[in-house]
Amino acid sequence: MSAFRLDRQTLMAYVDGQLDAQRHALVEQAIAADARLAAEVQALQQQTAALRAALDPLLDEPIPPRLLQHAVAPRRQWAQAAAVALLVGAGAVFGGIVASQWRTPGGPVLAQGEEGALHFVQQAVLAYAVYTPDPRRPVEVRNGSDLTTWLSRRLDRRIVAPDSLPGGLELMGGRLLPGMPGKPAAQLMYQDAQGRRLTVYLRGMAKPTAQTAFRIVTSGRTTTLYWVDRNWGYAVTGDLPRDALLQAARALYARYSDAASPPEVPAAATPRT
Amino acid sequence: MADRQQLLIEQIPHLRRYARVLTCGRAADADDLVQDTLERALAKWGLWRGAGSVRPWLFSIMHNLFADQCAGAARGAGMALDELPEPLHPQQPAAQELRLQALQLIDALQRLPLPQREVLLLVAVEGMSYAEVARTLGVPQGTVMSRLSRARTQLWQLSATDAAQPRPALRVIEGERTVG
Question: What value of ipTM does the predicted structure carry?
């Protein structure tokens, strides 16, 4: 307690989580006893929160294709060309989202608090673009080993990976990906008899969201169908007919949900019966 | 290889945000800076040992590149209010008043001296530790703390005086629409 000074820098370090446990406790005692200190700490916390609220939306902006190209390491030329083509294709998805062909009269406008979904889908499509063409190591852990145990432990929730999905899609395996800070993502990969691949991407969302409908984003041949259920986002991506993706998504939804009713189906995809 | 790509791609939004604040919101300059950073990172990939997060390493590359740019041109100084660039406007369709507050804050942030702006962004927004920020910027930890303290105080002063002043009109950016 001797050299402990309760100045602005100490309060700041407290707010920034930079104090050791002992000092942290000392500051907590001090602010509990002094309303002026408590007010200063609160002002610091509010400033941090305001800065994040003001700048976090920048993270959801679409990534320009030229930057995606520069993230691809130079290596065997054919592989690089293929990766760039896929990444640029994926980048184009997001340029096209705002003016999406799925905008229909009467369609719901993106609800407040859903911006994170854009970033989420972007990550899902990029992960698809990067890993599905990999001929040698498309998955990190093959199906049959401790895939779901491993993923469940790393994502801190029960991960279900059905061995097969409608349309003859068989589980190949999965991998762990960086998602959001503190919220890693899982990617599951499926393949059908023709060698067509589908990925399932899921991770915790930055903030809890009420359940959304199934939503569709298309770009060229790749289609993503995604939904958010409370704290978790799910994206099914593939170069497959939309109905095939929808069937796969429904099957997954059923496995992942305790709820009785699935999300609304996009009217343009399949009429509800 | 694919893992390296994925690591870099995941960091692009954070790099773009940092670059946008460094360049006072000039979006094209910011993306040029991100591009240079990615190129430098790939060229020097071997220097990153894979210890800890790749983000502080990328930020330090960007910081050094930007410092080199600034050495010639007098960049990084605060911008006049009416020069606030459009791309930094928050897109969140929050209530108008909240958007206005966010805009004022970004405005004030951009008028902080560059060294203060950097530490504030890295600590408060990116959530890095003081030690990480000190390594990233190549300064002692005590310097990080004093810059941070000055940045916070000055940001309060700037946003307090701004509150009474008229602000530029906001551009409305449409959100995503999909069939629901």
Answer: 0.76
